[in-house]
Amino acid sequence: MGAHVSKQIEKRKSLSVEKKALVDLKQSCGCDYPGCEYRPTDRKNWMAGLDPGKLTINKIVWPGTHDSATNKIGIPLITRPFAQCQSLSIYEQLVRGTRVLDIRVEEGRRVCHGILKTYSVDVVLEDVKKFLSETTSEVIILEIRTEFGHDDPPEFDKYLEEKLGDYLIHQDDHVFGKTVAELLPKRVICVWKPRKSAAPKHGSPLWSGGYLKDNWIDTDLPSTKFESNLKHLGEQPPVSSRKFFYRVENTVTPQADNPILCVRPVTDRIHGYARLFMTQCFSRGIVDRLQVLSTDFIDGDFVDACVALTSARIEGKV
What we know:
Elements: H1 2-29, H2 46-49, E1 62-65, H3 90-96, E2 100-105, E3 110-113, E4 116-120, H4 121-134, E5 140-146, H5 156-164, H6 180-183, E6 188-193, E7 212-214, H7 222-234, E8 245-249, H8 263-271, H9 274-283, E9 292-295, H10 300-314
Parallel strand pairs: 1-9, 2-5, 5-6, 7-8, 8-9
Antiparallel strand pairs: 3-4
């Protein structure tokens, strides 16, 4: 018992140090970067507002959500706080400006997060199609993977192709250098990551898992995650020469040996530092690597920060 208490005291001390490190970094370096003052007038149509004829796929800083379809997962006030990473529906996230979705499924085609299940993936796809029907130039990266510990849904690739049809941008390395205007009317890059089934092949309507990479760090310590994200991002090629999307997750994860297991209070430790992360990318000379930035409980300022850096790129400010 004494050892457990001692361990928890040390953890609290470490967490306090980590929180202070980010506060101090923000105070000393600020959160300004070239073009940071830009705010889209319409987040629902922010790609259209940047001129699809100028907006190449590899210049976009894509605002994404982590565990995107968890807004109704579990039982409210009982299991939901331990698994919910977003409070908005998929449609509401897209309207807010999200352009990368992270969807986990199980063998019955239901969305899940670990052992907890929620609505059918049909709900996700209908929300995506509703958004696409209301816009003209917004491109989405839709990642769907089989959750760890579950089996692949049978014939899921055929199901996705049937559901998304003509919206699908086919797997092709040349896509990274094309503008949004050149890809229209196709507007969905759908990355399918099965656990055991065959991966999509080159030229397929779906993209294989190797086209969306990340280095996920399982920690609840915000400065550790922040610095790890910068380290791994710095090891990537510049977006101009890269033929895959690289994702940085501005999130931290509850740990089983910590008394705070609910997602929201834990991930809030890093949530407000997206602009600081971008500033640090500039100061450390790696802003040309930044491409997909994801978060829990996405808000408007997070989207605006990504759109501002995208605008600065296409205007030649960076």
